[in-house]
Amino acid sequence: MITVEHETQPRNGCECDENQLRLFPCLSVVSDDAVVAIARKSFVKRYWRGDVLFKASDKAKFFFIVERGAIQLHNNSEDAREVEIRVLTEGNFYCGTPTCARNDNTVNALAVEDTSVIAIPRDDFVSVIHSGLTEFGIEVLTMACTRVKQLSTMMRSIERHSC
User: Fold this and answer.
1) 115-121 and 82-89 as β-strands: parallel, antiparallel, unpaired?
2) What is the DSSP letter of 132?
3) Residue 109 has what pLDDT?
4) Which CDD domains match (predicted)?
5) Exposed, middle or buried by CB within 10 Å (0-12, 13-18, 19+), for 110?
6) Is 57 helix (H, G, I), strand (E, B) or coil?
7) Helix crossing, 32-41 with 122-131: angle to 10°?
8) Which of 41, 53, 67, 146 has the greatest number of CB atoms lying within 10 Å of its CB?
């Protein structure tokens, strides 16, 4: 499958609705100035049904809030079956472990219907999250994300062996 992006358009000079960005739990507690700065760099991306947003091996460039439509998050098993992890719908978000543990995606994302998302550049997002943390806090967050990634890998391994 080929990753496809359609009609990447900024809204009103690149600004997204700050209230929608506050749907991210990690942005719900940051300063208004930080959310405004992120909103200025965020934009709407549209995908058609069947478009691949990203693959598990891709570097994470953006985090998403689903504005409308639906996105299936899945992994592929060793026998090439798609193992659905979750379907994201309006208001759901994807930021995953790329926030702090390496910057690659851990799942595949597929638009299962025509979809629009608010895309937040990864580097800007991570910068805001890290700006309120001490070095120790960043290390703890990174270790927690790494652990979540390890547990996800273990679960996929168990799933493969149970079939």
Assistant:
1) unpaired
2) T
3) 92
4) CAP_ED (cd00038)
5) buried
6) coil
7) 170
8) 53
Residue 133: CB partners within 8 Å, gap ≥ 6? 141
For the chain, the domains span 6-162
Predicted pLDDT of residue 8: 43
Residue 59 and residue 70: Cα distance in Å, rounded? 22
Output the six-digit token pair for 94. Answer: 């994807």
Q: Are 103 and 145 in contact (CB under 8 A)?
A: no
Q: How far apart are CA 54 and CA 1, in angstroms?
A: 10
Write out residues in the chain with pLDDT < 70, as ranges: 1-15, 25-26, 96-103, 145, 148-150, 152-153, 155-163
Fold of 6-162: Jelly Rolls (2.60.120)
What DSSP state is assigned to residue 113? S
For residue 4, what are the contacts with CB-CB under 8 A and spacing of at least 6? 47, 48, 51, 52
At residue 11, the pLDDT reads: 39
Sheet holding 62-68, edge to edge: 6-9, 43-47, 115-121, 62-68, 93-94
What is the C-alpha separation between 149 and 103, in angstroms, rounded? 12
> Residue 86 CB: number of other CB atoms within 10 A?
12
Residue 14: per-residue pLDDT: 44
pLDDT for the residue numbered 10: 41
Reading the block at residue 32, the tokens are 């208004």
